[in-house]
Amino acid sequence: EELLRDADIAMYRAKWDGKNRYVVFETGMQDAVQNRMELEMDLREALENDEFFLAYQPTIDLSDMSPTGVEALIRWKHPVRGVVQPDDFIPLLEDTGLITAVGKWVLEEACSQGAAWRQAGYPIGMAVNVSGRQLDTDQLIADIEGALSQSGLDPGALTIEITETTLMRNVEETARRLAAVKQLGVRIAIDDFGTGYSSFAHIQRFQVDALKIDRSFVTGLTHNEEGETLIHTLVQLGKALSIETFAEGIERQQELSLLRHENCDSGQGFLFARPLDAAATETFLRDWADNAIAVR
Ligand code: C2E
Ligand code: MG
Ligand code: MG
User: Fold this and answer.
1) For residue range 156-165, what is the model confidence (pLDDT) as tens digits?
2) Atom of ligand 1 at shortest range from CA of 268
3) Which atom of ligand 1 is least distant from the CA of 94?
Protein backbone atom coordinates (compact mmCIF):
# COMPACT_ATOMS: atom_id res chain seq x y z
CA GLU A 1 0.00 0.00 0.00
CA GLU A 2 2.78 2.38 0.91
CA LEU A 3 4.63 1.65 -2.28
CA LEU A 4 1.55 2.40 -4.36
CA ARG A 5 0.85 5.55 -2.40
CA ASP A 6 4.41 6.80 -2.95
CA ALA A 7 4.26 5.92 -6.62
CA ASP A 8 1.04 7.87 -6.83
CA ILE A 9 2.65 10.91 -5.25
CA ALA A 10 5.55 10.75 -7.71
CA MET A 11 3.01 10.50 -10.54
CA TYR A 12 1.15 13.59 -9.34
CA ARG A 13 4.41 15.39 -9.08
CA ALA A 14 5.31 14.48 -12.66
CA LYS A 15 1.94 15.77 -13.85
CA TRP A 16 2.26 19.00 -11.96
CA ASP A 17 5.74 19.60 -13.27
CA GLY A 18 4.30 19.66 -16.77
CA LYS A 19 3.63 15.98 -17.57
CA ASN A 20 5.60 13.86 -20.04
CA ARG A 21 8.45 13.17 -17.61
CA TYR A 22 9.72 10.73 -15.00
CA VAL A 23 9.81 11.51 -11.31
CA VAL A 24 11.42 9.31 -8.67
CA PHE A 25 9.69 9.44 -5.30
CA GLU A 26 11.43 11.13 -2.38
CA THR A 27 10.04 11.35 1.14
CA GLY A 28 10.01 15.16 1.05
CA MET A 29 7.44 15.08 -1.73
CA GLN A 30 4.66 13.94 0.48
CA ASP A 31 4.19 17.27 2.30
CA ALA A 32 4.28 19.26 -0.90
CA VAL A 33 1.71 16.99 -2.51
CA GLN A 34 -0.49 17.04 0.58
CA ASN A 35 -0.28 20.82 0.69
CA ARG A 36 -1.20 21.13 -2.92
CA MET A 37 -4.13 18.72 -2.65
CA GLU A 38 -5.50 20.72 0.26
CA LEU A 39 -5.15 23.98 -1.62
CA GLU A 40 -6.84 22.42 -4.61
CA MET A 41 -9.79 21.31 -2.52
CA ASP A 42 -10.12 24.74 -0.92
CA LEU A 43 -9.89 26.42 -4.31
CA ARG A 44 -12.93 24.53 -5.50
CA GLU A 45 -15.03 26.41 -2.98
CA ALA A 46 -13.24 29.74 -3.04
CA LEU A 47 -15.33 31.33 -5.79
CA GLU A 48 -18.60 30.31 -4.20
CA ASN A 49 -17.40 31.52 -0.79
CA ASP A 50 -16.44 34.90 -2.21
CA GLU A 51 -12.80 34.52 -1.18
CA PHE A 52 -11.23 36.14 -4.25
CA PHE A 53 -10.65 39.84 -4.49
CA LEU A 54 -8.80 42.17 -6.83
CA ALA A 55 -5.90 44.45 -6.09
CA TYR A 56 -5.21 47.29 -8.52
CA GLN A 57 -1.79 48.53 -9.49
CA PRO A 58 -1.66 51.97 -11.13
CA THR A 59 0.04 52.39 -14.51
CA ILE A 60 1.76 55.64 -15.42
CA ASP A 61 2.32 57.62 -18.60
CA LEU A 62 6.09 58.19 -18.49
CA SER A 63 5.98 61.24 -20.73
CA ASP A 64 4.00 63.38 -18.27
CA MET A 65 3.81 61.06 -15.23
CA SER A 66 0.02 60.97 -15.20
CA PRO A 67 -1.86 57.77 -14.31
CA THR A 68 -3.21 55.94 -17.35
CA GLY A 69 -5.06 53.20 -15.57
CA VAL A 70 -4.71 50.17 -13.34
CA GLU A 71 -3.94 46.48 -13.72
CA ALA A 72 -6.28 44.14 -11.88
CA LEU A 73 -4.35 41.48 -9.91
CA ILE A 74 -6.20 38.64 -8.23
CA ARG A 75 -5.74 37.68 -4.57
CA TRP A 76 -7.22 34.81 -2.59
CA LYS A 77 -8.24 35.39 0.99
CA HIS A 78 -7.89 31.86 2.34
CA PRO A 79 -9.87 31.32 5.55
CA VAL A 80 -6.86 29.84 7.38
CA ARG A 81 -3.73 30.72 5.41
CA GLY A 82 -4.56 34.38 4.92
CA VAL A 83 -3.98 36.15 1.61
CA VAL A 84 -2.49 33.85 -1.04
CA GLN A 85 -0.63 35.39 -4.01
CA PRO A 86 -1.55 34.48 -7.60
CA ASP A 87 1.71 32.67 -8.37
CA ASP A 88 0.71 30.15 -5.68
CA PHE A 89 -2.74 29.37 -7.01
CA ILE A 90 -3.10 30.39 -10.68
CA PRO A 91 -1.26 27.22 -11.82
CA LEU A 92 -3.71 25.18 -9.73
CA LEU A 93 -6.67 27.00 -11.23
CA GLU A 94 -5.27 26.24 -14.66
CA ASP A 95 -4.64 22.55 -13.96
CA THR A 96 -8.11 22.03 -12.54
CA GLY A 97 -9.88 24.03 -15.22
CA LEU A 98 -11.31 26.32 -12.53
CA ILE A 99 -9.55 29.23 -14.25
CA THR A 100 -12.44 29.56 -16.71
CA ALA A 101 -14.97 30.42 -14.01
CA VAL A 102 -12.53 32.47 -11.94
CA GLY A 103 -11.26 34.32 -15.03
CA LYS A 104 -14.85 35.23 -15.90
CA TRP A 105 -15.33 36.58 -12.39
CA VAL A 106 -12.14 38.66 -12.68
CA LEU A 107 -13.34 40.16 -15.95
CA GLU A 108 -16.72 41.07 -14.50
CA GLU A 109 -15.32 42.50 -11.28
CA ALA A 110 -12.58 44.50 -13.03
CA CYS A 111 -14.92 45.88 -15.69
CA SER A 112 -17.52 46.98 -13.18
CA GLN A 113 -14.86 48.64 -11.00
CA GLY A 114 -13.33 50.29 -14.07
CA ALA A 115 -16.72 51.58 -15.19
CA ALA A 116 -17.41 52.95 -11.68
CA TRP A 117 -14.09 54.82 -11.57
CA ARG A 118 -14.61 56.27 -15.01
CA GLN A 119 -18.08 57.36 -14.01
CA ALA A 120 -16.57 59.01 -10.92
CA GLY A 121 -14.44 61.11 -13.26
CA TYR A 122 -11.12 59.21 -13.46
CA PRO A 123 -10.44 58.63 -17.17
CA ILE A 124 -8.52 55.43 -16.58
CA GLY A 125 -8.00 52.14 -18.38
CA MET A 126 -8.39 48.69 -16.84
CA ALA A 127 -5.99 45.84 -17.64
CA VAL A 128 -6.95 42.23 -16.97
CA ASN A 129 -4.65 39.21 -17.11
CA VAL A 130 -5.89 36.23 -19.08
CA SER A 131 -4.35 32.79 -18.80
CA GLY A 132 -3.55 30.37 -21.60
CA ARG A 133 -6.32 28.01 -20.57
CA GLN A 134 -8.89 30.78 -21.09
CA LEU A 135 -7.60 31.27 -24.63
CA ASP A 136 -8.21 27.59 -25.43
CA THR A 137 -11.91 28.11 -26.14
CA ASP A 138 -14.23 30.77 -27.59
CA GLN A 139 -15.74 31.17 -24.13
CA LEU A 140 -13.26 33.97 -23.47
CA ILE A 141 -14.77 36.13 -26.20
CA ALA A 142 -18.26 35.68 -24.77
CA ASP A 143 -16.99 36.39 -21.25
CA ILE A 144 -15.32 39.63 -22.31
CA GLU A 145 -18.42 40.69 -24.23
CA GLY A 146 -20.60 39.86 -21.23
CA ALA A 147 -18.40 41.74 -18.75
CA LEU A 148 -18.40 44.80 -21.01
CA SER A 149 -22.14 44.93 -21.57
CA GLN A 150 -22.94 44.15 -17.93
CA SER A 151 -20.71 46.96 -16.66
CA GLY A 152 -21.14 49.45 -19.46
CA LEU A 153 -17.36 49.87 -19.59
CA ASP A 154 -16.09 51.46 -22.80
CA PRO A 155 -14.37 48.56 -24.65
CA GLY A 156 -11.46 50.86 -25.53
CA ALA A 157 -10.76 51.22 -21.80
CA LEU A 158 -10.17 47.48 -21.40
CA THR A 159 -6.81 45.83 -22.09
CA ILE A 160 -6.37 42.07 -22.07
CA GLU A 161 -2.88 40.96 -21.01
CA ILE A 162 -1.52 37.70 -22.34
CA THR A 163 1.95 36.42 -21.57
CA GLU A 164 4.31 35.99 -24.44
CA THR A 165 4.72 32.28 -23.74
CA THR A 166 0.95 31.77 -23.90
CA LEU A 167 0.70 33.53 -27.25
CA MET A 168 3.11 31.11 -28.83
CA ARG A 169 1.32 27.97 -27.66
CA ASN A 170 -1.33 27.65 -30.31
CA VAL A 171 -0.69 30.40 -32.81
CA GLU A 172 -3.54 29.78 -35.28
CA GLU A 173 -6.38 29.55 -32.78
CA THR A 174 -4.98 32.27 -30.58
CA ALA A 175 -4.71 34.67 -33.53
CA ARG A 176 -8.33 33.98 -34.47
CA ARG A 177 -9.62 34.51 -30.92
CA LEU A 178 -7.58 37.65 -30.38
CA ALA A 179 -8.89 39.05 -33.65
CA ALA A 180 -12.42 38.51 -32.29
CA VAL A 181 -11.46 40.24 -29.04
CA LYS A 182 -10.05 43.17 -31.00
CA GLN A 183 -13.30 43.33 -32.97
CA LEU A 184 -14.98 44.23 -29.69
CA GLY A 185 -12.71 47.29 -29.48
CA VAL A 186 -10.62 45.85 -26.63
CA ARG A 187 -6.85 46.37 -26.48
CA ILE A 188 -4.29 43.56 -26.32
CA ALA A 189 -0.98 43.67 -24.45
CA ILE A 190 1.80 41.09 -24.39
CA ASP A 191 2.75 40.53 -20.77
CA ASP A 192 6.25 39.55 -19.58
CA PHE A 193 7.57 40.53 -23.00
CA GLY A 194 11.12 39.50 -23.79
CA THR A 195 10.96 36.19 -21.97
CA GLY A 196 9.14 34.12 -24.59
CA TYR A 197 11.06 34.40 -27.85
CA SER A 198 8.17 35.46 -30.08
CA SER A 199 8.96 36.53 -33.60
CA PHE A 200 8.21 39.94 -35.10
CA ALA A 201 5.84 38.28 -37.51
CA HIS A 202 3.72 37.01 -34.65
CA ILE A 203 3.60 40.32 -32.86
CA GLN A 204 2.23 41.94 -35.99
CA ARG A 205 -0.12 39.09 -36.70
CA PHE A 206 -1.72 39.35 -33.25
CA GLN A 207 -2.39 43.09 -33.73
CA VAL A 208 -0.88 43.80 -30.36
CA ASP A 209 -1.39 47.28 -28.85
CA ALA A 210 1.24 47.21 -26.10
CA LEU A 211 4.41 45.36 -25.12
CA LYS A 212 4.83 45.04 -21.37
CA ILE A 213 8.58 44.61 -21.06
CA ASP A 214 9.31 42.02 -18.39
CA ARG A 215 10.50 43.15 -14.99
CA SER A 216 13.75 41.20 -15.41
CA PHE A 217 14.90 43.77 -17.99
CA VAL A 218 14.01 46.68 -15.75
CA THR A 219 15.38 45.53 -12.38
CA GLY A 220 18.96 46.63 -11.98
CA LEU A 221 18.77 48.29 -15.37
CA THR A 222 21.24 50.92 -14.38
CA HIS A 223 23.89 48.55 -13.05
CA ASN A 224 25.38 47.50 -16.36
CA GLU A 225 25.59 48.59 -19.94
CA GLU A 226 24.04 45.43 -21.37
CA GLY A 227 20.87 46.15 -19.42
CA GLU A 228 20.61 49.58 -20.97
CA THR A 229 21.28 48.20 -24.43
CA LEU A 230 18.55 45.58 -24.02
CA ILE A 231 15.97 48.11 -22.88
CA HIS A 232 16.95 50.41 -25.72
CA THR A 233 16.47 47.58 -28.20
CA LEU A 234 13.12 46.48 -26.78
CA VAL A 235 11.75 50.03 -26.75
CA GLN A 236 12.97 50.61 -30.31
CA LEU A 237 11.29 47.38 -31.39
CA GLY A 238 7.98 48.72 -30.08
CA LYS A 239 8.54 52.04 -31.79
CA ALA A 240 9.38 50.37 -35.11
CA LEU A 241 6.11 48.43 -34.95
CA SER A 242 4.10 51.42 -33.64
CA ILE A 243 3.21 49.53 -30.48
CA GLU A 244 3.03 51.11 -27.03
CA THR A 245 6.07 50.22 -24.91
CA PHE A 246 5.46 49.61 -21.25
CA ALA A 247 8.02 48.85 -18.52
CA GLU A 248 7.08 46.53 -15.65
CA GLY A 249 8.59 46.56 -12.18
CA ILE A 250 10.04 50.07 -11.93
CA GLU A 251 11.43 50.30 -8.40
CA ARG A 252 14.15 52.94 -8.55
CA GLN A 253 14.34 56.53 -9.59
CA GLN A 254 17.36 55.78 -11.84
CA GLU A 255 15.38 53.11 -13.68
CA LEU A 256 12.59 55.61 -14.27
CA SER A 257 15.01 58.26 -15.52
CA LEU A 258 16.60 55.88 -17.97
CA LEU A 259 13.24 54.62 -19.25
CA ARG A 260 12.06 58.18 -19.75
CA HIS A 261 15.30 58.96 -21.54
CA GLU A 262 14.60 56.01 -23.88
CA ASN A 263 11.09 57.35 -24.47
CA CYS A 264 9.44 54.24 -23.12
CA ASP A 265 5.72 55.13 -23.17
CA SER A 266 4.35 53.79 -19.89
CA GLY A 267 5.29 51.97 -16.73
CA GLN A 268 4.26 50.34 -13.53
CA GLY A 269 6.13 49.49 -10.37
CA PHE A 270 6.61 49.87 -6.66
CA LEU A 271 8.21 53.29 -7.23
CA PHE A 272 4.75 54.62 -8.10
CA ALA A 273 2.48 52.24 -6.22
CA ARG A 274 2.14 48.64 -5.08
CA PRO A 275 -1.03 46.77 -5.92
CA LEU A 276 -3.70 48.51 -3.80
CA ASP A 277 -7.19 47.70 -2.64
CA ALA A 278 -10.02 49.57 -4.31
CA ALA A 279 -10.26 52.32 -1.69
CA ALA A 280 -6.50 52.98 -1.70
CA THR A 281 -6.50 53.02 -5.51
CA GLU A 282 -9.09 55.75 -5.47
CA THR A 283 -7.04 57.75 -2.99
CA PHE A 284 -4.00 57.28 -5.20
CA LEU A 285 -5.83 58.54 -8.28
CA ARG A 286 -7.14 61.51 -6.34
CA ASP A 287 -3.81 62.46 -4.76
CA TRP A 288 -1.68 61.82 -7.80
CA ALA A 289 -0.99 65.45 -8.54
CA ASP A 290 1.00 65.75 -5.28
CA ASN A 291 2.74 62.39 -5.75
CA ALA A 292 3.77 63.24 -9.30
CA ILE A 293 5.80 66.17 -8.10
CA ALA A 294 7.60 63.98 -5.56
CA VAL A 295 8.39 61.32 -8.16
CA ARG A 296 9.64 63.78 -10.73
P1 C2E B 1 1.95 40.21 -14.09
O2 C2E B 1 0.70 40.31 -14.88
O3 C2E B 1 3.23 40.39 -14.81
O4 C2E B 1 1.77 41.27 -12.93
C5 C2E B 1 2.80 42.02 -12.38
C6 C2E B 1 3.31 41.40 -11.11
O7 C2E B 1 4.49 42.08 -10.73
C8 C2E B 1 2.35 41.54 -9.94
O9 C2E B 1 2.54 40.40 -9.09
C10 C2E B 1 2.86 42.80 -9.26
O11 C2E B 1 2.56 42.87 -7.88
C12 C2E B 1 4.35 42.65 -9.45
N13 C2E B 1 5.01 43.94 -9.45
C14 C2E B 1 4.56 45.12 -9.91
N15 C2E B 1 5.45 46.10 -9.77
C16 C2E B 1 6.54 45.54 -9.19
C17 C2E B 1 7.83 46.04 -8.78
O18 C2E B 1 8.15 47.21 -8.90
N19 C2E B 1 8.69 45.14 -8.24
C20 C2E B 1 8.36 43.82 -8.07
N21 C2E B 1 9.27 43.03 -7.53
N22 C2E B 1 7.17 43.31 -8.45
C23 C2E B 1 6.27 44.17 -9.00
P24 C2E B 1 1.32 39.52 -8.58
O25 C2E B 1 0.15 40.39 -8.23
O26 C2E B 1 1.85 38.59 -7.54
O27 C2E B 1 0.90 38.70 -9.86
C28 C2E B 1 1.75 37.73 -10.40
C29 C2E B 1 1.23 37.21 -11.71
O30 C2E B 1 0.02 36.47 -11.52
C31 C2E B 1 0.85 38.31 -12.70
O32 C2E B 1 2.01 38.79 -13.32
C33 C2E B 1 -0.07 37.56 -13.62
O34 C2E B 1 0.65 36.84 -14.58
C35 C2E B 1 -0.75 36.58 -12.69
N36 C2E B 1 -2.11 37.08 -12.37
C37 C2E B 1 -2.48 38.01 -11.48
N38 C2E B 1 -3.82 38.21 -11.51
C39 C2E B 1 -4.30 37.36 -12.44
C40 C2E B 1 -5.61 37.08 -12.95
O41 C2E B 1 -6.63 37.67 -12.57
N42 C2E B 1 -5.71 36.11 -13.93
C43 C2E B 1 -4.60 35.47 -14.42
N44 C2E B 1 -4.78 34.54 -15.37
N45 C2E B 1 -3.36 35.71 -13.98
C46 C2E B 1 -3.21 36.65 -12.99
MG1 MG C 1 -0.03 41.49 -16.20
MG1 MG D 1 4.29 40.77 -16.25
Assistant:
1) 999 999 998 8
2) 15
3) 44
